[in-house]
Amino acid sequence: MTIKYTKDHEWVRVEGDVGTVGVSDHAQHQLGDVVFVELPDVGRQLAQGKEAAVVESVKAASDVFAPVSGEVIEANADLENDPSLVNAGAETTGWFFKLRLSNPAELDGLMDEAAYKAFVEGQA
Amino acid sequence: MTEASESLKTTPLHSLHLELKGKMVPFAGYDMPVQYPLGILKEHQHTRAKAGLFDVSHMGQVRLTGEDPAAALESLVPGDIKGLARGRMRYTLFLNEQGGILDDLMVTNAGDHLFLVVNAARKDHDVAHMRERLKGKAEVELLDDLALMALQGPEAAAVLGRFIPEAATMKFMSYLPATFNGIPVIITRSGYTGEDGYEISCDTSDAETIARALLAEDEVEAIGLGARDSLRLEAGLCLYGHDIDETTTPVEAGLEWALSKRRREEGGFPGYAIIKDQLANGAPRRRVGFQPDGRQPAREHTDVCDADGQKIGEVTSGGFGPTASAPVAMGYVDRAHAAVGTPVQLMVRGKPLAAKVAAMPFVPQRYYRG
C-alpha cells in the first residue's frame, strides 16, 4: 500500500488498482470548517490534474483535482451527512472517493509522504 | 510576512491579533484577522451563544461640525437626521443622483456634532464627498486617532455592564460617552451581527488595554472577519460593495425603512425623483433572501434562474449559515420573482441548485428593546 500526495494537497492511497482519494490534513487546516463536499458520480472518468470534487468551507469553495486518472467506483456517502469528517480525519474517515486507476504510472510523478512534508514546510 | 502585506495598513490591535494567532488577510487595505484558531464556525456560534469581540478599527469614524450639520448632511442622505434626538443614532445611506448607494453609514447626534461611522473601503471617498458637497456648511474630520471595537452577543450587556454599569440599560441605537476602567470611551448599542451588542470607540493608544480587559472575561472570545460576514449574512444585513453599491437603489435593496417619512415627502436628497417613483410604483428588481435545498452553498455572483432556466438575477452574498445550519444567500431578482416562497434555480458550477426566495433575516434579530 502506498500513499502519494500532489502539489494541490490531494492524497491517493493505492491498494491493487484502486486508489482512495482525499485532501491532506494540511489542506483541511487551511480550508477551515468544511460544510459541504461535492463528490463525483460513480462511473465518471477522471483525468489527472482535472477537477474531481469541490470542498466548501464557511468562507469559500475550493476545487479538488484528481491525483491520478481513472473511473470513480465509490463516493464517501458519510460526507453528505457530516462534511466535518474532512476536518476530523482528512486522511482517514474523511476520504472523498475511490477510483480504478487507468494509468498507474502517473503515481511516479507524485510525492511520497516525506517529500510532501518537505513541500508543505517549504511553502510556509 | 509577504511583500504585499507590508504595504497594508494595520489597526491599533494588530499586534494583539498576531499574539492571538489570528489568520491575517488583506481587507480594505488593512491586514486583518479573518479568523483565530477557534475557526469561523465556532467563532460564529460563540457570538450567538455568548459574546464576541471584533476589531473594526479599519472603519471610518468621522466628526461633522458646523452651524447645522444635520441639515447639511440631509442634502446627501435620505434619513431624518434633523429629527435625531441627542444621543440617538440611525442607519442611513449616501446616495448619488440616480438614487444609487455610495455607502451605508451610522449617524449619531452627539450634541455639538454628528458622529459618523462609515465603511473602511469607502472612508476616503466619503470624506472627500462630504468635503466637496458640504463646503461652507459643515467641517468634516476623519478621526483616524480612534480605534473601534464591537462587542456582540447575548452576554455583551452583562460583560460591558461590569465595566460601565449604564451600558446594560442603554437603548438600542443610542450613544453614551463613558469611562472604561478610567479610560474615556464612546459606546453605542449597535452592531452588525443581529445580536444585542455595542461598538466601543476609544483612542488608538487605549484600544489594546480595553480589548485585553474584555477578552479576559469568561464569556468573550476574539472573532475574525469571517464570522463577522456569516453573522451579518444570517441577520440579512447588507455588505457594501456586494449587496449594495452605486447601481442599487434603497428601494431595490429593500432598505425602505431607511427612507424616513418626512424625507420621503419633502425630498431634498440625491436621486429623490427616482426613489419617489420606485416607492410608488415598485422597483424593477428586489433584494431577497435565498434558501437552497440541501446543504450546498451558493456563493456571490451565482446566477439565479426561474423554473424555465431564464436568468432573473444574481446572488450577491452567499455561504453557509452556522446558526441556520444551512446554506443562506441574498441577491437580486426581477420583481416578478421576488415573493417569498418563489421557486428558483441557483446555477452553481453549471448545475441548477433548487432554492426558494426566503424571508430575511435567516436567524431572528435579537436587539435590546429595553
From TrEMBL, chain A:
Species for this entry: Azospirillum argentinense
PROSITE patterns with a match to the protein in the record: BIOTINYL_LIPOYL, LIPOYL
Sites bearing N6-lipoyllysine, chain numbering: 59
Entry's cofactor comment: Binds 1 lipoyl cofactor covalently.
Protein name: Glycine cleavage system H protein
Family per similarity comment: Belongs to the GcvH family.
Protein's UniProt keywords contain Manganese: no
Required co-factors: (R)-lipoate
Lineage: Bacteria, Pseudomonadati, Pseudomonadota, Alphaproteobacteria, Rhodospirillales
GO biological process, one term: glycine decarboxylation via glycine cleavage system
